[in-house]
Amino acid sequence: xxxxxxxxxxxxxxxxxxxxxxxxxxxxxxxxxxxxxxxxxxxxxxxxxxxxxxxxxxxxxxxxxxxxxxxxxxxxxxxxxxxxxxxxxxxxxxxxxxxxxxxxxxxxxxxxxxxxxxxxxxxxxxxxxxxxxxxxxxxxxxxxxxxxxxxxxxxxxxxxxxxxxxxxxxxxxxxxxxxxxxxxxxxxxxxxxxxxxxxxxxxxxxxxxxxxxxxxxxxxxxxxxxxxxxxxxxxxxxxxxxxxxxxxxxxxxxxxxxxxxxxxxxxxxxxxxxxxxxxxxxxxxxxxxxxxxxxxxxxxxxxxxxxxxxxxxxxxxxxxx
Length: 321
Fold this sequence. Notes:
Blueprint: H1 22-35, E1 41-44, H2 51-60, E2 69-73, H3 78-86, E3 87-89, E4 96-98, H4 100-103, E5 108-112, H5 119-131, E6 140-145, H6 149-154, H7 160-166, E7 170-172, H8 180-197, E8 203-204, H9 206-214, H10 220-234, E9 239-240, H11 261-265, H12 269-283, H13 288-295, H14 299-311, H15 315-318
Parallel strand pairs: 1-6, 1-7, 2-5, 5-6, 8-9
Antiparallel strand pairs: 3-4
Helix pairs in contact: 1-2, 8-10, 12-13, 13-14
Protein backbone atom coordinates (compact mmCIF):
# COMPACT_ATOMS: atom_id res chain seq x y z
CA UNK A 1 0.00 0.00 0.00
CA UNK A 2 1.36 3.43 -0.93
CA UNK A 3 1.86 6.16 1.59
CA UNK A 4 -0.91 8.66 2.06
CA UNK A 5 -0.47 12.40 1.92
CA UNK A 6 -0.77 14.10 5.27
CA UNK A 7 -3.33 16.83 4.82
CA UNK A 8 -4.37 15.40 1.46
CA UNK A 9 -5.32 17.60 -1.45
CA UNK A 10 -6.64 20.52 0.54
CA UNK A 11 -9.99 22.05 -0.32
CA UNK A 12 -9.94 25.24 -2.38
CA UNK A 13 -6.15 25.33 -2.58
CA UNK A 14 -3.97 24.96 -5.63
CA UNK A 15 -2.74 21.39 -5.18
CA UNK A 16 -0.24 21.55 -2.34
CA UNK A 17 1.15 18.27 -1.06
CA UNK A 18 2.69 18.22 2.35
CA UNK A 19 4.13 14.72 2.57
CA UNK A 20 4.96 12.16 5.25
CA UNK A 21 8.14 13.50 6.80
CA UNK A 22 7.70 13.45 10.62
CA UNK A 23 8.37 17.19 10.91
CA UNK A 24 5.77 17.95 8.26
CA UNK A 25 3.25 15.62 9.89
CA UNK A 26 3.80 17.45 13.17
CA UNK A 27 3.28 20.81 11.45
CA UNK A 28 0.01 19.63 9.90
CA UNK A 29 -1.14 18.23 13.25
CA UNK A 30 -0.50 21.55 14.98
CA UNK A 31 -2.24 23.41 12.15
CA UNK A 32 -5.30 21.17 12.36
CA UNK A 33 -5.50 21.53 16.14
CA UNK A 34 -5.10 25.30 16.14
CA UNK A 35 -7.63 25.74 13.34
CA UNK A 36 -10.54 25.14 15.75
CA UNK A 37 -9.36 27.98 18.01
CA UNK A 38 -9.19 31.75 17.55
CA UNK A 39 -5.47 31.87 18.31
CA UNK A 40 -2.96 33.65 16.10
CA UNK A 41 -0.37 31.57 14.26
CA UNK A 42 3.19 32.22 13.06
CA UNK A 43 4.34 30.05 10.13
CA UNK A 44 8.05 30.03 9.33
CA UNK A 45 9.93 28.50 6.42
CA UNK A 46 11.77 29.26 3.21
CA UNK A 47 10.25 30.78 0.10
CA UNK A 48 7.97 28.39 -1.80
CA UNK A 49 7.69 25.81 0.98
CA UNK A 50 3.92 26.28 1.38
CA UNK A 51 3.40 28.85 4.16
CA UNK A 52 0.43 30.56 2.52
CA UNK A 53 -1.10 27.21 1.60
CA UNK A 54 -0.82 26.09 5.22
CA UNK A 55 -2.47 29.35 6.27
CA UNK A 56 -5.31 28.56 3.88
CA UNK A 57 -5.48 25.02 5.32
CA UNK A 58 -5.96 26.49 8.81
CA UNK A 59 -8.68 28.82 7.52
CA UNK A 60 -10.50 26.07 5.63
CA UNK A 61 -10.54 23.79 8.66
CA UNK A 62 -11.91 26.47 10.98
CA UNK A 63 -15.41 27.80 11.55
CA UNK A 64 -14.34 30.80 9.45
CA UNK A 65 -14.10 28.80 6.24
CA UNK A 66 -17.06 30.63 4.63
CA UNK A 67 -15.65 34.04 5.55
CA UNK A 68 -12.96 36.22 3.97
CA UNK A 69 -9.39 34.99 3.60
CA UNK A 70 -7.10 37.93 2.87
CA UNK A 71 -3.33 38.25 2.44
CA UNK A 72 -1.17 41.36 2.77
CA UNK A 73 2.46 41.16 1.64
CA UNK A 74 4.45 43.21 4.13
CA UNK A 75 7.55 43.20 1.91
CA UNK A 76 6.17 45.67 -0.65
CA UNK A 77 6.31 49.45 -0.33
CA UNK A 78 5.68 50.43 3.31
CA UNK A 79 3.04 53.04 2.44
CA UNK A 80 1.12 50.53 0.33
CA UNK A 81 1.25 48.05 3.21
CA UNK A 82 -0.10 50.61 5.68
CA UNK A 83 -2.87 51.62 3.27
CA UNK A 84 -3.94 48.03 2.77
CA UNK A 85 -4.02 47.35 6.51
CA UNK A 86 -5.57 50.62 7.70
CA UNK A 87 -7.56 51.69 4.64
CA UNK A 88 -7.20 54.76 2.44
CA UNK A 89 -9.18 57.29 0.44
CA UNK A 90 -9.17 56.59 -3.28
CA UNK A 91 -7.86 59.62 -5.17
CA UNK A 92 -10.10 59.25 -8.23
CA UNK A 93 -13.43 58.32 -6.65
CA UNK A 94 -12.95 60.01 -3.30
CA UNK A 95 -14.43 56.99 -1.51
CA UNK A 96 -12.75 55.41 1.49
CA UNK A 97 -11.45 51.88 0.93
CA UNK A 98 -11.70 49.71 4.04
CA UNK A 99 -8.56 48.33 5.58
CA UNK A 100 -7.98 44.60 5.34
CA UNK A 101 -8.78 43.94 9.01
CA UNK A 102 -12.21 45.52 8.70
CA UNK A 103 -12.89 44.04 5.26
CA UNK A 104 -12.06 40.53 6.50
CA UNK A 105 -14.09 40.77 9.72
CA UNK A 106 -15.07 37.25 10.92
CA UNK A 107 -12.44 35.78 8.60
CA UNK A 108 -8.67 35.36 8.42
CA UNK A 109 -5.89 37.82 7.56
CA UNK A 110 -2.40 36.60 6.62
CA UNK A 111 0.53 38.98 7.12
CA UNK A 112 3.08 37.52 4.72
CA UNK A 113 6.74 38.44 5.34
CA UNK A 114 5.77 40.20 8.57
CA UNK A 115 9.44 40.74 9.37
CA UNK A 116 9.53 43.37 6.60
CA UNK A 117 7.20 45.79 8.38
CA UNK A 118 8.73 49.15 9.25
CA UNK A 119 9.83 49.16 12.90
CA UNK A 120 7.58 52.09 13.84
CA UNK A 121 4.57 50.49 12.20
CA UNK A 122 5.25 47.21 14.05
CA UNK A 123 4.43 48.97 17.32
CA UNK A 124 1.39 50.63 15.82
CA UNK A 125 0.08 47.34 14.43
CA UNK A 126 0.53 45.64 17.80
CA UNK A 127 -1.62 48.34 19.36
CA UNK A 128 -4.24 47.90 16.62
CA UNK A 129 -4.39 44.14 17.17
CA UNK A 130 -5.05 44.68 20.86
CA UNK A 131 -7.87 47.12 20.11
CA UNK A 132 -9.75 45.01 17.55
CA UNK A 133 -12.39 43.91 20.08
CA UNK A 134 -13.17 47.55 20.86
CA UNK A 135 -14.25 47.97 17.24
CA UNK A 136 -16.15 44.65 17.05
CA UNK A 137 -13.60 43.24 14.62
CA UNK A 138 -12.99 39.51 14.95
CA UNK A 139 -10.24 38.19 12.69
CA UNK A 140 -7.73 35.39 13.02
CA UNK A 141 -4.21 36.68 12.51
CA UNK A 142 -1.71 34.44 10.71
CA UNK A 143 1.81 35.71 10.07
CA UNK A 144 4.49 34.18 7.85
CA UNK A 145 8.21 34.79 7.65
CA UNK A 146 11.39 33.32 6.20
CA UNK A 147 13.39 34.63 9.16
CA UNK A 148 13.96 33.72 12.79
CA UNK A 149 11.84 36.44 14.40
CA UNK A 150 13.01 35.65 17.92
CA UNK A 151 16.58 36.51 16.84
CA UNK A 152 15.35 39.75 15.29
CA UNK A 153 13.64 40.56 18.58
CA UNK A 154 16.90 39.89 20.40
CA UNK A 155 18.78 42.32 18.16
CA UNK A 156 16.08 44.98 18.43
CA UNK A 157 14.95 44.65 14.83
CA UNK A 158 11.45 43.35 15.52
CA UNK A 159 9.04 44.60 18.17
CA UNK A 160 8.77 42.12 21.02
CA UNK A 161 5.10 42.88 21.70
CA UNK A 162 4.10 42.09 18.11
CA UNK A 163 6.21 38.92 18.12
CA UNK A 164 4.52 37.74 21.31
CA UNK A 165 1.10 38.44 19.80
CA UNK A 166 1.60 36.52 16.55
CA UNK A 167 3.74 33.64 17.83
CA UNK A 168 1.39 32.01 20.34
CA UNK A 169 1.37 29.05 17.96
CA UNK A 170 4.57 28.55 15.97
CA UNK A 171 4.69 26.19 12.98
CA UNK A 172 7.85 25.57 10.96
CA UNK A 173 7.80 24.02 7.48
CA UNK A 174 10.93 22.07 6.53
CA UNK A 175 12.49 22.72 3.07
CA UNK A 176 11.98 19.95 0.51
CA UNK A 177 15.72 19.26 0.10
CA UNK A 178 15.71 17.91 3.66
CA UNK A 179 12.84 15.51 2.87
CA UNK A 180 14.06 13.11 0.13
CA UNK A 181 11.10 10.70 0.39
CA UNK A 182 8.61 13.55 0.11
CA UNK A 183 10.65 15.05 -2.73
CA UNK A 184 10.23 11.86 -4.76
CA UNK A 185 6.48 11.90 -4.06
CA UNK A 186 6.26 15.50 -5.27
CA UNK A 187 8.18 14.66 -8.42
CA UNK A 188 5.98 11.67 -9.26
CA UNK A 189 2.81 13.65 -8.58
CA UNK A 190 3.73 16.68 -10.68
CA UNK A 191 5.12 14.56 -13.49
CA UNK A 192 1.71 12.85 -13.71
CA UNK A 193 -0.11 16.18 -13.49
CA UNK A 194 1.90 17.84 -16.26
CA UNK A 195 1.83 14.71 -18.40
CA UNK A 196 -1.97 15.02 -18.39
CA UNK A 197 -1.77 18.75 -19.07
CA UNK A 198 0.44 18.30 -22.13
CA UNK A 199 -1.18 15.01 -23.25
CA UNK A 200 2.02 13.03 -22.85
CA UNK A 201 3.12 9.87 -21.05
CA UNK A 202 6.31 10.91 -19.30
CA UNK A 203 8.22 9.28 -16.46
CA UNK A 204 11.29 10.52 -14.63
CA UNK A 205 14.62 8.89 -15.52
CA UNK A 206 17.08 7.69 -12.87
CA UNK A 207 19.75 10.25 -13.73
CA UNK A 208 17.18 13.03 -13.80
CA UNK A 209 15.91 11.99 -10.37
CA UNK A 210 19.47 11.97 -9.02
CA UNK A 211 19.94 15.48 -10.32
CA UNK A 212 16.72 16.55 -8.60
CA UNK A 213 17.97 15.09 -5.32
CA UNK A 214 21.26 16.97 -5.58
CA UNK A 215 19.67 20.34 -6.45
CA UNK A 216 19.36 22.89 -3.63
CA UNK A 217 15.77 23.99 -4.48
CA UNK A 218 16.10 27.52 -3.20
CA UNK A 219 12.42 28.21 -3.86
CA UNK A 220 11.18 24.76 -2.84
CA UNK A 221 7.84 23.58 -4.25
CA UNK A 222 7.31 26.72 -6.28
CA UNK A 223 10.61 26.13 -8.08
CA UNK A 224 10.11 22.36 -8.37
CA UNK A 225 6.68 22.72 -9.97
CA UNK A 226 7.99 25.32 -12.42
CA UNK A 227 10.98 23.16 -13.40
CA UNK A 228 8.91 20.01 -13.88
CA UNK A 229 6.24 21.78 -15.90
CA UNK A 230 8.83 23.20 -18.31
CA UNK A 231 10.65 19.87 -18.45
CA UNK A 232 7.58 17.76 -19.23
CA UNK A 233 6.42 20.28 -21.82
CA UNK A 234 9.77 20.04 -23.62
CA UNK A 235 10.31 16.28 -23.17
CA UNK A 236 11.15 14.49 -26.42
CA UNK A 237 10.54 10.95 -25.16
CA UNK A 238 8.61 9.02 -22.53
CA UNK A 239 11.59 9.06 -20.14
CA UNK A 240 12.63 12.49 -18.87
CA UNK A 241 16.43 12.70 -18.99
CA UNK A 242 18.66 14.83 -16.80
CA UNK A 243 19.57 16.93 -19.84
CA UNK A 244 15.90 17.83 -20.32
CA UNK A 245 15.48 19.12 -16.77
CA UNK A 246 15.12 22.89 -16.77
CA UNK A 247 17.60 23.27 -13.91
CA UNK A 248 20.67 25.46 -13.86
CA UNK A 249 22.20 28.49 -12.21
CA UNK A 250 21.15 30.63 -15.15
CA UNK A 251 17.57 29.33 -14.98
CA UNK A 252 16.72 30.57 -11.52
CA UNK A 253 12.99 30.74 -10.87
CA UNK A 254 11.60 34.22 -10.39
CA UNK A 255 11.14 35.20 -6.77
CA UNK A 256 8.01 37.07 -7.74
CA UNK A 257 4.99 34.80 -7.32
CA UNK A 258 2.13 34.74 -9.79
CA UNK A 259 0.13 36.89 -7.38
CA UNK A 260 2.77 39.62 -7.70
CA UNK A 261 2.98 39.70 -11.49
CA UNK A 262 0.30 42.33 -12.04
CA UNK A 263 1.88 44.63 -9.51
CA UNK A 264 5.29 44.27 -11.12
CA UNK A 265 3.86 45.25 -14.50
CA UNK A 266 2.63 48.50 -12.97
CA UNK A 267 6.04 49.36 -11.48
CA UNK A 268 8.85 51.35 -12.97
CA UNK A 269 11.95 49.33 -13.84
CA UNK A 270 13.84 51.06 -11.03
CA UNK A 271 11.19 50.16 -8.44
CA UNK A 272 11.03 46.56 -9.71
CA UNK A 273 14.81 46.29 -9.35
CA UNK A 274 14.64 47.59 -5.79
CA UNK A 275 11.85 45.14 -4.92
CA UNK A 276 13.79 42.19 -6.34
CA UNK A 277 16.88 43.13 -4.36
CA UNK A 278 14.79 43.50 -1.20
CA UNK A 279 13.15 40.10 -1.72
CA UNK A 280 16.53 38.45 -2.33
CA UNK A 281 17.88 39.91 0.89
CA UNK A 282 14.79 38.85 2.83
CA UNK A 283 15.01 35.33 1.45
CA UNK A 284 18.69 34.95 2.39
CA UNK A 285 18.24 36.49 5.85
CA UNK A 286 20.26 39.45 4.53
CA UNK A 287 23.24 37.35 3.48
CA UNK A 288 24.56 39.65 0.76
CA UNK A 289 26.80 37.04 -0.86
CA UNK A 290 23.88 34.63 -1.29
CA UNK A 291 21.55 37.42 -2.41
CA UNK A 292 24.03 38.54 -5.06
CA UNK A 293 24.31 34.96 -6.32
CA UNK A 294 20.54 34.62 -6.63
CA UNK A 295 20.28 37.94 -8.45
CA UNK A 296 23.17 37.10 -10.77
CA UNK A 297 25.21 40.20 -9.90
CA UNK A 298 28.53 40.79 -8.18
CA UNK A 299 28.65 41.52 -4.45
CA UNK A 300 30.10 44.93 -5.35
CA UNK A 301 27.11 45.75 -7.58
CA UNK A 302 24.70 44.69 -4.83
CA UNK A 303 26.57 46.76 -2.24
CA UNK A 304 26.41 49.82 -4.50
CA UNK A 305 22.67 49.36 -5.01
CA UNK A 306 22.07 49.01 -1.27
CA UNK A 307 24.02 52.22 -0.64
CA UNK A 308 22.03 53.97 -3.38
CA UNK A 309 18.68 52.99 -1.83
CA UNK A 310 19.94 53.82 1.67
CA UNK A 311 21.02 57.30 0.54
CA UNK A 312 17.60 57.78 -1.07
CA UNK A 313 16.01 57.09 2.31
CA UNK A 314 14.29 53.77 1.52
CA UNK A 315 13.29 52.52 4.99
CA UNK A 316 14.22 48.85 4.52
CA UNK A 317 17.72 49.68 3.25
CA UNK A 318 18.29 52.43 5.81
CA UNK A 319 17.73 49.86 8.57
CA UNK A 320 19.74 47.15 6.82
CA UNK A 321 22.80 46.15 8.78
